[in-house]
């Protein structure tokens, strides 16, 4: 029964549409976006979730309690899957997490541990590590180091994009990084297909990748960001010399872009998708029409992000 649920859920993950953007600002450019809100819980993180939970089910070692931390989207995937599989679940989140997420996780019976948002996301990871060291019967997914995470993007997202491009070259891959699983996983797959593909990292202006600044509690676009104090994501640090450019956008920049894109296309994208789109457009304007840029829209935005869009526009 539980196995059937997981099989069924896994079958619905991936094979999301890749669309060529045709709004006013992109119609003379060649920008393609992978629309990840088509996944069962509405985001790209379903891919990493099924990869890591499959690994857990294969090597459970009798552990019946999953521990993980999240910026939001992975929590939704893990919470829902654990609920249906009857696995107990503890999730560490920032106190800045939206109420809609906290309520949903509560409904799934998840034990939630909150870390003060002023301490930044690195402190959320450290808290989960601390719990994992104390609770030896918990199975810690540890997405920033879990190979099943990056593998889901090499074998899934990356290979899907290659086949959806129908033999057209991919001249640049543009994406944000939380763990860097999406960014580096897709890059590794695409490099086998277009060997000179450029790699473009998008990050919040409030705390870019590799920043020496201390962590801060500023609002940032979703699912992404640096750790502060020069610390770097494991999936990126050994290969960050491959990054052609890092593009940085503020939370406010991404809210304006969500509103603009929605008013022109009727398509709702979230803040990280908006950041990726801002970078893809800037790069496209520099490179011209014959340069194929592929990016990703990780989700369609949370209730809280769309409320922030409304507030911002009403203040103008
Ligand atoms: C909205 C959103 N964008 C981007 C990402 C980046 O994902 P990754 O962990 O693969 O770097 C995430 C991850 O949580 C996310 O939720």
List the helices and strands and how they pair.
Elements lengths: L1 H11 L5 E3 L9 E6 L9 H15 L5 E5 L3 H13 L2 E7 L4 H9 L3 E5 L4 H15 L3 E3 L6 H18 L7 E5 L4 H11 L6 E7 L29 H4 L7 E5 L1 H15 L5 H17 L4 E6 L5 H13 L1
Parallel strand pairs: 2-10, 3-4, 3-6, 4-5, 7-8, 7-10, 8-9
Antiparallel strand pairs: 1-2
Structure description:
This protein is an alpha/beta fold. The chain folds into 2 domains: 189 residues, Rossmann fold, CATH 3.40.50.1100; 96 residues, 3-Layer(aba) Sandwich (Rossmann fold), CATH 3.40.50.1100. Helices cover 45% and strands 16% of the residues. It has 11 helices and 10 strands. Strand 3, helix 3 and strand 4 form a beta-alpha-beta unit. Helix 2 crosses helix 3 and helix 2 crosses helix 6. It is globular, with a radius of gyration of 19 Å. The relative contact order is 0.15. The mean pLDDT is 96. The structure holds pyridoxal-5'-phosphate (PLP). Pyridoxal-5'-phosphate binds next to helix 3 and helix 7.
How much of the polypeptide forms β-strand, as a percent range? Answer: 15-25%
Strand numbers in spatial order across the main sheet:
1-2-10-7-8-9
Give the CA-CA distance, first to last residue: 53 Å
Q: Residue-averaged pLDDT, rounded? A: 96
Please outline the major beta sheet: 6 strands, mixed
List the uncertain runs: none
Total domains, how many? 2
């Amino acid at each position: 029964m539980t196995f059937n649920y997981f099989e069924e859920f896994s079958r619905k993950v991936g094979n999301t549409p890749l669309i060529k953007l045709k709004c006013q600002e992109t119609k003379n450019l060649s920008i393609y976006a992978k629309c990840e809100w088509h996944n069962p819980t509405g985001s790209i993180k379903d891919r990493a979730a099924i990869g890591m939970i499959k690994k857990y089910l294969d090597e459970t070692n009798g552990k019946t309690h999953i521990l993980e931390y999240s910026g939001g989207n992975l929590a939704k995937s893990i919470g829902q899957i654990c609920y249906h599989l009857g696995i107990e679940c503890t999730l560490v989140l920032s106190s800045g997490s939206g109420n809609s997420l906290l309520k949903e996780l509560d409904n799934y019976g998840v034990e939630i541990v909150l870390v003060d948002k002023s301490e930044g996301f690195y402190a959320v990871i450290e808290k989960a590590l601390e719990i994992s060291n104390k609770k030896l019967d918990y199975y810690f997914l540890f997405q920033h180091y879990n190979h099943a995470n990056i593998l889901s993007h090499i074998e899934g997202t990356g290979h899907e994009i290659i086949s959806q491009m129908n033999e057209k070259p991919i001249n640049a891959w543009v994406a944000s990084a939380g763990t860097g699983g999406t960014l580096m996983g897709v890059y590794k797959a695409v490099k086998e297909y277009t060997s000179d593909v450029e790699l473009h990292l998008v990050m919040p202006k409030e705390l870019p990748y590799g920043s020496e600044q201390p962590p801060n509690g500023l609002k940032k676009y979703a699912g992404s960001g640096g750790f502060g104090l020069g610390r770097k994501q494991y999936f990126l640090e050994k290969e960050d010399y491959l990054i052609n450019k890092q593009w940085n956008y503020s939370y406010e920049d991404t809210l304006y872009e969500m509103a603009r894109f929605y008013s022109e296309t009727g398509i709702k994208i979230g803040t990280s998708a908006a950041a990726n789109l801002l970078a893809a457009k800037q790069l496209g304007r520099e490179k011209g029409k014959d340069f194929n840029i592929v990016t990703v829209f990780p989700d369609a935005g949370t209730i809280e992000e769309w409320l922030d869009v409304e507030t911002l526009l009403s203040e103008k």
